[in-house]
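Sorry to interrupt, but I need a hand with the structure work. It will help me judge whether the discrete encoding reads sensibly. Write everything out right here, beneath this request:
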Amino acid sequence: MTNNLKATKRESKTSGDLNNLRSKGFIPAILYGGNDPSLKISIDEKLLSKVFSSDSFLSTVIDLNIDGQTEKVIPRDISYHVISDKPIHIDFMRVTKGSKIILQIPVIFKNNKDCPGLKSGGVLNIVRRKVELSCSAENIPENITVDLANLEIGASIKISSVKLPENAQPTITDRDFVVATIAAPTIVKEPEKPAEEVPAEGAEGEAAAAAEGGEAAAPAKEGDAAKKDDKGKESAGDKKSSGEKKPEKK
């Protein structure tokens, strides 16, 4: 993918010059590489925003028009403002024919709807969103495409199964690394709710009585009731005998 961008040569050197340039809506940049000397340039922030928003900006070849002369370049580094997070400086490298370049290429996934593993509830687990490739400067891929069609749950997509652009090789060569997997759905099982204790028969009434009047009185034993009744009779008999008058002697 190639984009067009217009730039202007700049003579600013000090930090004050650069800040003045940014206040006017321009971003300072530098162009290096190839057989030509490095060149200080500035780019209109509004023009840059049209290509800067792309995820593949750092792997996009740009036709950079500098005061009427066009060169093929590629962004290599971006500096951001610590607060506003806006770009404040960009490094561009000249793209020379026949040279090799190492880039982080974005990975995209297609045919999600034709993936049996995803249809049955599986989850696409992306291990690498970008893959570092060594490729020719005149044939830089925009992205790496992974086809998910016909993949079941448990499938592991390795770099060897991904179709890479011509003359492009991953920089990791010592292993066949994983790009993504189709993982089984994670089901969280809720713990069983413990059964509530059922109070024994009659205990509920006793508990209510205790709550109202304090501690419930213990039931009287059968023998205790009999003794209490006998004591009552004896007491009544004593009172009766003490109230009788003795007959008078004549």
